[in-house]
Design goal:
By secondary structure, this protein is an alpha+beta fold. Helices cover 40% and strands 28% of the residues. The protein has 3 helices and 5 strands. The radius of gyration is 14 Å and the shape is globular. The chain starts with a strand and ends with a helix.
Length: 100
């Protein structure tokens, strides 16, 4: 299975890094390791996460963090990480839930 990060997921990671880096560079390293270890687990076990709150998505909590990976399985060969969000963020946004 090929893992792809969406532009939104990359932006989420960048914002996370910008917030954590000045507070704890070592903490950022541990956090990124946890995120990418969890993503790597999805490569072998793509159904590890639960059904998402938005149709067609799945969600998986990054262990020992408050982060949630939002991902989709567009076909049998790809897993797309759509977002990396803090569990305290409002998700889905109002405009996405209204569109369903």
């Amino acid at each position: 299975m090929h893992i792809r990060l969406s532009a939104d997921a990359e932006a989420d990671l960048e914002r996370l890094a910008e917030w954590v880096r000045p507070r704890s560079p070592q903490g950022l390293d541990r956090l990124l390791t946890a995120i990418f270890t969890t993503i790597a687990q999805l490569e072998g076990f793509p159904l590890l996460g639960k059904e998402g709150r938005v149709d067609g998505t799945r969600e998986l909590v990054v262990p020992r963090t408050s982060l949630i990976l939002i991902y989709t399985l567009p076909d049998a060969y790809h897993l797309d990480v759509e977002r990396v969000l803090d569990a305290r963020q409002k998700y889905p946004p109002e405009d996405e839930s209204a569109a369903e």
